[in-house]
Write a structure and sequence with these properties.
With 360 residues, the chain is of the alpha/beta class. Helices cover 41% and strands 23% of the residues. It has eight helices and 16 strands. A six-stranded mixed β-sheet has the order 1-5-6-7-4-8, with helices on both faces. Strand 13 and strand 14 form a beta hairpin. Helix 3 runs antiparallel to helix 7. It starts with 5 loop residues before the first strand and ends in a 9-residue tail after the last helix.
Length: 360
């Protein structure tokens, strides 16, 4: 393989019940240098980000690749670890530089659009942009309805939980994991997304995120049984002991956590229930189940009530997926039209300075 570094894949944004969630402001805090790429949404912009990612990989850097939620092959940002550079298509997320002259640099591509071509495409572009907005709003409204149904589901399971038994199980895990470790430094916290709803259904990048992690705990348990709270608690404990923690957020509920990584322990723990079911892999000795479902004993009435809510939830998610597909089609059309309006020569001239070699 000609690539010397490696690539880890994440989703750059997620379609959640609370709206579109992204973590680029948090990534900007991590980065030592941020390139704000400003311009209309185009596939050409995605190709540029891919080229930049490969350029740094060939120099031996590890690269984080942030995928578009709707367009399977599109990229909206790359983060270069080691030199800590973030390249992000900032206009899409209304990101503005606040540290010009220090760590923030801006490159605008709006002047690469040819006025004559834009005029020809103007009416079709306006229609596609309006459709994109309409389908996105419908998708998010439906996801919001799905979250409310999920909340009803959680209330039922919570009433059947043995919380004391769970507390004892978590205390035992903490003792095993942290032992007497306390480092003489402040623990840092970083943030990423686990996955999102796409036109193809719920998708995640767990395999890529965890490929180099030795110990993987896979939580099994019903909705509302404390999975997210447990992981937030472990992250807080890690930070309190001077260990770093990475929070990997849920792609449906913007306030929920689906994974926590503690790099210094080469450890992660993640929700391994629907819609992202995982089980220990053959050959990975550090894989094991962390079962909290054993503390939830559902009554007959609870099972009946859950079945009714589950059916409504599934229907809402199917509807949301349909809207996501229409949203993706409109997004594709917008980018396709704008790509035909770009000046190739101006584009080459503007992008060339971005490809500078860096000494590790």
């Amino acid at each position: 393989m000609w690539l010397n570094g490696n690539v880890t894949y994440y989703f750059g944004h997620a379609l959640t019940g609370q709206g579109v969630k992204h973590l680029y402001k948090e990534l900007m805090e991590e980065a030592e240098l941020v390139y704000f790429l400003q311009g209309a949404p185009t596939f050409k912009g995605s190709e540029l980000l891919k080229e930049l990612g490969y350029f740094y990989v060939k120099q031996g850097f590890s690269v984080e690749w942030f995928k578009h939620a709707l367009l399977e092959d599109a990229v909206e940002a790359v983060y270069i670890k080691g030199c800590n550079r973030l390249f992000v298509w900032a206009s899409e997320w209304a990101l503005e530089p606040t540290l010009l002259g220090t760590k923030h640099r801006v490159l605008s591509f709006y002047d690469c659009l040819e006025a004559e071509q834009l005029e020809k495409a103007g009416e079709r572009l306006a229609i596609a942009m309006q459709e994109r907005l309409s389908w996105r709003e419908k998708c998010i409204a439906t996801l919001n309805h799905a979250i409310k149904l999920h909340d009803e589901w959680e209330i039922i399971t919570q009433s059947c939980m043995n919380w004391q038994a769970l507390d004892e199980q978590v205390a035992s895990l903490k003792t095993e994991l942290f032992q007497a470790i306390t480092l003489n430094k402040a623990g840092t916290r970083t943030h990423r997304l686990l996955g999102t709803l796409t036109p193809r259904g719920a998708e995640n990048t767990v395999d890529s995120i965890t490929k180099n992690i030795t110990t993987r705990l896979m939580i099994k348990g019903k909705p509302g049984t404390g999975k997210s709270s447990l992981m937030k608690d472990l992250a807080n404990e890690a930070n309190a002991r001077g260990l770093d923690a990475q929070i990997i957020w849920c792609g449906l509920d913007a306030g929920s956590v689906d994974m926590v990584i503690i790099p210094e322990l080469n450890f992660c723990i993640f929700d391994s229930t629907e819609p992202h079911v995982f089980d220990p892999q053959d050959g990975r000795l550090g894989d094991r189940i962390f079962d909290i479902g054993q503390h939830c004993m559902l009554s007959k009435k609870a099972e009946t009530d859950i079945e009714a809510v589950r059916a409504q939830y599934k229907e809402a998610m199917q509807d949301a997926m349909g809207y996501a597909k229409r949203y993706a089609e409109a997004e594709y059309k917008v980018r396709e039209l704008l790509d035909h309006c770009l000046s190739t020569s101006l584009w080459r001239e503007k992008t060339a300075p971005l490809f500078e070699r860096v000494t590790k």
